Amino acid sequence: MSSLAANITLMFQDLPLLERIAVARKLGFQGVEVQFPYTESPETWQKALHASQMPLILFNLPAGDFMQGGTGLACHPGKVTEFQQAFETSLPYIEALKPQVINLLAGRKPEGYSQEDCLTQLTENLVYVCQQLKPHPLKVTCEPINNLDQPGYLLPRVKDWQDLAARVKQDHFGLQLDIYHAARMGDNPAQLILENANQLAHVQFADSPGRSHPGTGNLDWIAIWEALAKVHYQGWMAAEYPAGQQDSFDWMQALPALP
């Protein structure tokens, strides 16, 4: 059965990061994910997670200046050494926290390089990460992110991910499907679930266009949940939207049990 995780980077931002874990558990989430765990030591994370008996399901590899509007590291042909050094930074966290999914942010095409240059470099970096992480029981993903919220993002649609996966050709490379990002690009999330069932490694969700909880936008959540049930999705589903402790989480009671 699928379990629910809270993205504690976006949720409960009035609290210190690690205190958000206990709040997520109290609200009924079974796990947490975080965009970047690197502001705290692996040991500090271990203690906080153990105190709440919560697993950390997913986090991103370090992404350089991407979150500040820069190119990031993963697709930049001139930053291979920097990318590999950043990956090394993540290893103590992967070894200590044992996530089920490690996500790589594709980044933006830097000036002076072609789209093909950047896709080739992204492919090489993903193959490198997949091979380095083979001893770990996890999936590696490269999340499609809409290019309305993140202008210039190299991998805005699931179709782009499919093309990338054909290049990467690694068994434990999977699709991190963010329902919000897919909808913002005009795609049908339920149809994407059906079409990519065998590649689904992780699902994130928020309503669109407002990026809030299910029921606040225009998405057909019944169709989405039915699609996940139809493909017998067994992975985690992570709520990734800004929310406070006092916000409504009634949608959790309306969520059907998935096989």
TrEMBL record:
Keywords: Isomerase, Pyruvate. SUPFAM superfamilies: Xylose isomerase-like (SSF51658). InterPro entries: HyI-like (IPR026040), Sugar_Epim/Isomerase (IPR050417), Xyl_isomerase-like_sf (IPR036237), Xyl_isomerase-like_TIM-brl (IPR013022). The active site is at 143 (proton donor/acceptor), 240 (proton donor/acceptor). Residues 22-253 form the Xylose isomerase-like TIM barrel domain. Belongs to the hyi family. PANTHER family: HYDROXYPYRUVATE ISOMERASE-RELATED, ISOMERASE. This is Hydroxypyruvate isomerase.
